[in-house]
Amino acid sequence: MRPATAALALLLVAGAAPARAQDRFTDIIARAPESSVRNGYVVNHRREAVQREITARPPTEAELGVRLPPGARLVPDRTALQIVQYNPVWRVYQYRVAMSREELVRFFTEQGLEYDASQQWLYFPGGRKKEGGFIDDLHHGAQGIRIWRRPAAASAAP
Question: Which terminal residue of the chain has fewer beta carbons within 10 Å of its beta carbon, N or C?
Answer without folding.
Answer: C
